[in-house]
Structures are given as C-alpha cells and as structure tokens.
Amino acid sequence: MDNGALLEEISTTKPTPEQDESLLLNTDLPIFLSEPQNAFVVKNRPAILHCRAAHALKLYFKCNGARKVETMENWFVDPQTGVRIVEADSNVTRDMVEEFFGKDKFKCECFAWNGRGSIKSQPATVEVAC
Where is the Netrin receptor UNC5A-D-like N-terminal domain (predicted)? Predict the structure, then answer.
C-alpha cells in the first residue's frame, strides 16, 4: 500500500465506541487557580472569600462543612487556551461567625464542580477582628 492510500484510509476511519468512551473518561476534574485565604470580619464589613478554578461548571462555598453560603459567580473562557475559568466570591458576616458555636474555628471551603466530579479547596478560617 502506498503512502497516499494509507493516509486516505486513516483520515476516513471513524473512532470505535471504546475510543469515544476513553476520550470522555479523560476529561479533567476542575483545578483551583486560587483558593480562599484566611480573613477577618472588621466592624460592619464582611470578610470576602475568593476562589477561582479552571474546567469547572460551578463554584460554591460551604462553611463549617454543612452550611451553604451565598456565592456570587462569574465565568469566562480564556481566549488563548479555550479553557473555562470560573471565579466566585462569598461574603462572611460577623453574625455568621458569631452564631457558630462549634469547638473549632469558623471555616469555609470552596467547591468546584463539573460533570466529572468535584474538588474541595483548603479551608479558610474567618475570625472577628477585635
């Protein structure tokens, strides 16, 4: 077989269902580009937690493992890489911190989710400044 016929055969060959499935399985979990940092609530100003992730469809914050807090989310596609980037901010108020009666400090984590699964950021501690 000459090279022209071989190239034509390769270009017209369709992937098998197993090859299609392997492509789907190779999609990545989200990746954090920025994780929330420890913060203080000062007087009447809330602490603002921020996170940013690539390959995510949704970001949200949870505080103390269970309490889902209001999250403001923005997203864009990086024009050079074509990767979807999601950013999220959450305001943690003094009331939220003071109403927590756990033995540990008040902590929040950012969760990044896509169709493949979710990942959790490192926890950020939020304290009331004295």
Answer: 27-126
